[in-house]
Specification:
The complex is a heterodimer of chains A (about 775) and B (about 200). Helices cover about 50% and strands about 15% of the residues of chain A. With about 775 residues, chain A is of the alpha/beta class. The longest helix of chain A is centred in the C-terminal third of the chain and has 21 residues. The two termini of chain B are about 20 Å apart. Classes of the chains: A alpha/beta (about 775), B alpha+beta (about 200).
């Protein structure tokens, strides 16, 4: 019987800790336990056998750190470890060997520097060896980061057909090291098709209780619990764990009663702990977890439950009808896109839609970049919105969690493209009620398409709970029965036992005063059972409708969300009106961005953009710049002023004739190769932009060739280089050499903590920028102002 | 053998040293600005201070070499710093990964907020380190703390220090290829112990 069948019928037991046990057998501190697979196999076999005799059903191979980075002979170590386990189970019946996969010890990008694909390959190397050598399952354990866990699971799925078990590490607050919650992990791992999930290490069984309860509440697959023998303490110079086998097994009995399906131990536990655990839990009736039927999407920190309380999806990252976003996509202006993401997330939407499809750009590449970058600046779950299966696949692969997928429809082609990807990478899918014959004009036929898609999903092994149906909102301007058909469809689709979603604002296309129609339709749709609304989170009317609906439908206890929402908006209006009293000059000197933009707008009624810049913005910047140089103002104020000026600039630029705007004042900026500090460079950038310079910002750790190429391509004669570490000054020197060799008329400003005037001369820089303001003065004089 | 002492402190409990802050903001001391206050409020929400330390023996028998048991490192500066010490506290503290995420977000949103928050969080973790250092000083007569990368003490001992403290598990600290720590606002240090009170 394979382990997937076994766990359907009975509680299974893992073995316990290895480290402490092997130390009592003579493993020295600092010696790696994995080497014993080769040097002391008889001792490893004995340890395994002791656990089997204690009642363990599943042995974990002694391969926790057996990876390519730690052992050049990792293959030999893995094969030996598996052989030890095989020897141990000889003569026993119904025992299973789990290939043990521990964490890499490295943190994945964007927080760390380990590439996701490199992490997948890192795990794949070991898993391939294990799969070839006959184990019963793969146990991915002691993972404290969601992204690394996903990389390991993908590696397991791509390199074997074995069952996959996963256990993560949580602290007493039920948070993983990088912030993941139990619901987030349950959602992601179940969706990836992991066969059993749970927790191990770090805490004793007592402190694990809150996390266990969360798992049991949400999980539809069996839960694994492998606690430590409490916490380590030192007594009389000896380290020991503070929960003994008796106390441990009492807790394990409690855990079995809660619904724990696979029990074992981690650090500090011994065969005695397992033996007592087996004894004390064998009389507790076993129950396989029921399907919780939860529809969830998640990020790396939290899950969003879709259900009776409607949830909002921010629609702003979608180029349809948005000129600025189109421009940003064409110019690869990630900053603009990320800003759209962050500001929407700050309004409190539950999910962000991500659509970067434009005919003239490489959608696959852009999608990958945007998803990666968005999840480094916001933990709001994402909705991957694309019709290109390739773009969908890259996004699903690198997404850190369980995404919402927008969308599949009733067409054969769509089903065949989308469902295999969702099966592999996980996700909840929006199903549009259209097929080869278009969008039906009546509710019943839309419901039929929904049913067809749900059945198709089942064929691919995708549960109904992971389908959300969008019955499509069509504008009432073309047919005034459209809204009624959509509403009827929502009601009938909900009767199928699935949730619904709508792109709400489509309803008013072609009409004036769209917010009025949108918000009214939105309220009625929610009343008819709408669960997810793709909408503009900056629309007051839509937010009003949403928060008021939740308040009156008893979906907002004490109306607290409604009160927070309403008072925040009123406060904002008040502060804005107070700040408006300042003129443009004062707004910039004081560094109040909103006010600067408003005042610039007001001035446009009477003055030309160029005059506003010369008569208001530049004098204000000079005032704060002078104050800074005289140490009457400080860097934080200078930066705030620069940002206020830049915001006013951006507005004026859109009103300027091309003849007026001076595009010749350009500067290339970069932190040199090897250096990852970019604060100083970013400050210089903000200041230069506030003075109207066009800045080509190449970022940090930039190779000399890239800098030269940018200067040449843009015919830019002024290059600013930054370095913070002494070790990267040579790289600065190399860059200057290459720049001068390529075009001797290019001038170079250098700056950064380690540089001095003399040092700058020594490496042949033309100017030394003592600080950001100084650099602006140099640039001004270079361009002859 | 000595145990690893770990713990966490609530963000509000640590007063951010105003001299440290002024130095990093490049302002005069006691400089105030609404934006600094609001950045501080946001920062305190994500800070998760944790520390771990362990006492180890110190062997200075070979000149300019400091043998700490778990590693033997050449450093004239540390050798001098630890004169008269038979043991040392190996310490690591962090302000948590939430700070990295906040800084990453602000770097996209606003350079002024990013600069201010970066300065605040650097001063914060330094102040937290002082706080833990003080608690250690209450137990032992100590030397000023010494961190890898300072003077001639190489960053290369970071992996050993973090391993000694199981810092990946206890604090969530990992190293990148350049031996820099994530969370970025983390500090490791060696504190010489002369006497136990």
């Amino acid at each position: 019987m394979n382990i997937k069948q076994a766990i359907k019928n009975k509680r299974l037991y893992f073995d316990g800790g290895a480290g402490t046990l092997l130390q009592t057998m003579g493993l020295k501190g600092g010696e790696r336990a994995e080497t014993w697979n080769i040097t002391n196999p008889e001792k490893i076999i004995k340890m395994h056998k002791d656990y089997l005799l204690a009642g363990a059903d599943i042995l974990t191979t002694n391969t926790f750190g057996a990876s390519v980075e730690k052992f050049p002979n990792y293959e030999e170590i893995i094969v030996s470890a598996i052989n030890c386990a095989k020897k141990a189970v000889e003569g026993f019946k119904d025992k299973y060997i789990a290939f043990d996969v521990g964490p890499s010890g490295r943190l994945l990008k964007p927080l760390g520097d380990f590439e996701f694909e490199d992490a997948v390959e890192y795990f794949a190397k070991s898993i391939r060896v294990a799969a070839k050598n006959g184990v019963d399952l793969i146990l991915i354990e002691t993972m404290s980061d969601a992204y690394e866990t996903k990389a390991a699971v993908i590696a397991a799925k791509e390199n074997s057909d074995l069952p996959i078990f996963v256990t993560n590490v949580f602290d007493e607050q039920s948070k993983m090291m990088t912030g993941g919650s139990p619901l987030a992990m349950v959602a992601m791992l179940e969706s990836l098709g992991v066969d059993a999930i749970g927790i191990n290490c770090s805490l004793g069984p007592d402190k694990m209780m809150p996390t266990i309860k969360e798992y049991i509440k949400y999980a539809s697959v069996p839960m694994i619990i492998n606690p430590n023998a409490g916490l380590p303490e030192v007594k009389d110079g000896k380290a020991f764990f503070n929960i003994d086998a008796d106390e441990f097994s009492d807790y394990m009995r409690e855990i079995a009663n809660l619904g724990g399906c696979i029990l074992g131990g981690c650090c500090g536990t011994t065969p005695e702990y397992i033996k007592k655990t087996v004894e004390k839990t064998s009389d507790i009736a076993y129950k396989y977890p029921e399907n919780k039927n939860l529809t969830v999407v998640s990020s790396y920190t939290h899950g969003v439950l879709i259900g009776e309380k409607p949830q909002l999806i921010g629609e702003r990252i979608n180029p349809t009808g948005k000129k600025k976003l189109k421009e940003a996509l064409r110019n690869n202006d990630l900053n603009y896109i990320l800003n759209e993401g962050i500001t929407q997330a700050e309004t409190g939407v539950a999910i962000l839609d991500v659509n970067v499809g434009l005919p003239e750009i490489d959608e696959v590449k852009m999608m990958k970049e945007v998803v990666f970058s968005l999840q480094s600046v916001t933990d709001t779950p994402l909705q991957i919105d694309t019709s290109d299966p390739k773009a969908l696949e890259v996004a699903l692969r690198i997404y850190n969690g369980k995404p919402l997928v927008n969308s599949v429809n009733g067409k054969k082609e769509s089903v065949e493209a989308v469902f295999p990807l969702v099966k592999k990478y996980g996700g909840t899918v929006i199903a549009l009620t259209l097929d080869e014959n278009g969008i039906p004009d009546n509710a019943d036929d839309r419901v039929k398409i929904a049913e067809k898609i749900i059945n198709k999903a089942k064929e691919y092994g995708i549960d109904k709970k992971d389908i959300v149906v969008d019955p499509l909102a069509m504008t009432v301007s073309s047919d005034t029965t459209n809204a009624l058909v959509t509403l009827e469809s929502i009601r009938k689709i909900r009767e199928l036992g699935v949730y619904t979603s709508l792109g709400v604002s489509n309803i008013s296309f072609g009409l004036p005063n769209r917010p009025a129609i949108n918000s009214t339709f939105f309220s009625i749709a929610m009343e008819n059972g709408l669960n997810l609304a793709i909408m503009n989170p900056f629309s007051k009317e839509m937010n009003d409708a949403y928060y008021a609906f939740c308040a009156v439908k008893n979906l907002d206890s004490n109306c607290s969300e409604f009160i927070r929402y309403s008072t925040e908006n009123i406060q904002e209006e008040k502060t804005v009106s107070k700040k408006q009293e300042m003129d443009l000059h004062r707004s910039i000197v004081k560094g109040v961005k909103d006010s600067a933009v408003k005042q610039a707008e007001k001035l446009l009624e009477s003055e030309k953009p160029l005059d506003i810049i010369n008569n208001h913005i530049i004098p204000a910047l000079n005032e704060i710049g002078d104050d800074f140089e005289k140490q009457k103002a400080f860097l934080p104020q200078l930066l705030l002023s620069a940002e206020a000026a830049s915001a006013a600039f951006d507005l004026l630029k859109t009103k300027m004739n091309t003849a007026d705007s001076d595009t010749s004042r350009t500067v290339v900026l970069a932190t040199v190769k090897g250096d990852i500090h970019d604060i100083g460079k970013n400050i210089v950038k903000v200041l230069l932009e506030s003075y109207g310079f066009k800045v080509f910002d190449l970022g940090k750790d930039v190779p000399p060739e890239t800098i030269v190429q940018c200067a040449v391509e843009n015919n830019c004669k002024l290059v600013g280089l930054s370095a913070l570490m002494t070790t990267t000054v040579p790289s600065m020197e190399d860059t200057i050499k290459l720049l001068k060799k390529t075009d001797n008329s290019i001038k170079v400003i250098v700056g950064g903590a380690v540089l001095t005037e003399d040092y700058a001369k020594m490496i042949n820089a033309d100017y030394y920028g003592a600080d950001a303001m100084d650099t602006v003065r140099i640039a001004e004089s270079f361009y002859g102002k | 053998m000595s145990e690893i002492v770990t713990g966490s402190i609530k963000a509000e409990k640590i007063e951010i040293n105003k001299n440290e802050l002024a130095r990093r903001l490049k302002t005069k001391v006691d400089f105030s600005l609404d934006e600094i206050d609001s950045c501080k409020d946001e920062l305190l929400k994500v800070i998760n201070y944790k520390f771990a330390y362990k006492k180890v023996s110190v062997d200075l028998s070979e000149k300019d070499y400091v043998n700490l048991g778990f590693c033997n490192v050449k450093s004239k500066n540390l050798y001098k710093n630890l004169q008269g010490c038979n043991s040392a506290i190996i310490l690591a503290v962090t302000a948590g990964i939430g700070v990295d995420r906040l800084l990453g977000r602000l770097n996209m949103l606003s350079q002024s907020k990013h600069f201010i928050t970066d300065a605040l969080s650097s001063a914060a973790v330094e102040s937290f380190c002082d706080y833990v250092n003080q608690a250690i000083d209450d137990k032992y007569e100590t030397k000023p703390r010494f961190s890898p990368g300072y003077g001639d003490l190489p960053l290369e001992i970071q992996p050993d220090i973090l391993k000694l403290l199981s810092a990946d598990k206890t604090l969530g600290i990992t190293l990148n290829n350049s031996l820099l720590m994530t969370p970025v606002k983390s500090i490791t240090a060696i504190i010489g112990v002369q006497n136990e009170y």
